[in-house]
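Hi P.,

Sorry for the delay on this. The queue was packed all week, but I finally got your sequence through. Input first:
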Amino acid sequence: MSLNSTPSSERIHISLFGCRNAGKSSLINAITGQSLAIVSDHKGTTTDPVSKAMELLPLGPVLLTDTPGLDDIGQLGVLRMEKTWQVLAKTDIALLVVDAVQGFRQEDHDLLKKLQEKKLPRLVVMNQCDRLAPNAPRQFEGEESVFWVSAATGENIHALKEAIAALRPQQEERRIVADLLSPGDTVVLVTPIDESAPKGRLILPQQQTIRDILDTDAVALVTRETQLPRTLAALKEPPRMVITDSQAFRQVSMDTPDSIPLTSFSILFARYKGSLAGAVQGVLALDSLKDGDKVLISEGCTHHRQCNDIGSVKLPNMIRKKTGCEPEFVFTSGGEFPADLTPYRLIVHCGGCMLNQREMESRTLRAAQQGVPMTNYGILIAYMTGILPRSVELFPEIARLLPNA
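Then the structure:
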């Protein structure tokens, strides 16, 4: 996958935080060498988080986000700050930008404490140091890494970029499915084409899974659910596994011999994002749903919902049929995810292909801390159709979490 086409969910998220007029927008322009953010002397110019995907050498593909001021005021200010905290949940590297002339304010101290508690890679950037008196001291109390820069003159910007690159999160290599394959294996991918399928292209989880298979020197064979029996019959040897879209789980399970491992894109992505174990345990809460219980159905993207949308139509109907009760369904999408989850009896999340790992981990942790079971679309569908044990056989440590395992 080229740098220009790297999905936002796979980029390193670098976010700039600070009070109004600290020079966050000027700094983001200086770091990128482009006029990405509007700059003004008027306080509160940035009213919503503004993100830009780009390549930042020597770091690579990144997503830079400029946020509203921490000291925003009024009712709109409160709403803007909610957006800022949503950005914080998906931030990999944080830059706390402080006006070097005014120095630290209470809001800066409060945010720095949050960053420390989250153990988030961070830098304190004392901006606008060109406005300091020539002999003004450049000191900072504490053990934080501090850079004195000027977005206006470019002073120390290069060193700041090098320091940002040095904070690159060190993570074990994550693979969607490649670690389950050997070179030469054949994988059959089932991709239904219905009214919700994007015109002329595959959805992101399908694209990324195909690329992961090809990177292993394995063979990706893509077919529709209606052609699966013919596809399997045409193969001289059984495939290593079948991966299906969750909506076709029941039919694909019937058409795939028991000797061939079967799973779904949604289950693979729960594993890829680190939430599979919790999602398998969380789905068991479905059995205790009652009339009036609140169920949150959350999508990570903001696509236009079709008349027969899986999240807002199909899943609620399947839950009603399976449980025989009438829960109250609440829907969120994109960056919207409630801070208070306690009103909900169950959370059903999408696979999270549009969310980076940190944000999915943040949502999963928030649900766990508040004692609310959380699962995802594919696991819920597999459970309701009775094929969840089969769909996680590839992962024995997960299969043991199910009752009667």
